Amino acid sequence: MKEQLVLILSFLFIFALSASATVYKWVDERGVVNFTDDYNNVPPSYRGSVVETNAPSPYLLNLLQRQRLIHSQRERQHNPLRSHRL
Fold this sequence. Notes:
By secondary structure, this protein is of the alpha+beta class. The chain has 2 domains: 20-55, no CATH class; 58-86, no CATH class. 44% of the residues lie in helices and 21% in strands. It has a 3-stranded antiparallel beta sheet. A hairpin with a 5-residue loop joins strand 1 (20-27) and strand 2 (33-36). It starts with a helix and ends in an 8-residue tail after the last helix.
C-alpha cells in the first residue's frame, strides 16, 4: 500500500513539474493583489513590478485535491480513532 502511494505521489510530482502555466502577479495602488496568465492584461504602469511565477494547472490542482481526499478517507477507515479531533 505504501509503495503504491509513493509511486502515485512520485508520478504526480513529476507531472506537476511539466504541468504548469506562467502566472503574472502585481499589486495595484490600493494594495489589491492581481493575477493573470496573459502579460498583455497587466496594466502598463505595473509591468515593471510584475512577479512571474509558474503555477500548477487547474487540472493538476483538482487531481491533487482528490488524491488528498482519498488518502484522508482511507486513513479514517484504517484508523477510526485518529479521525476525531479533540
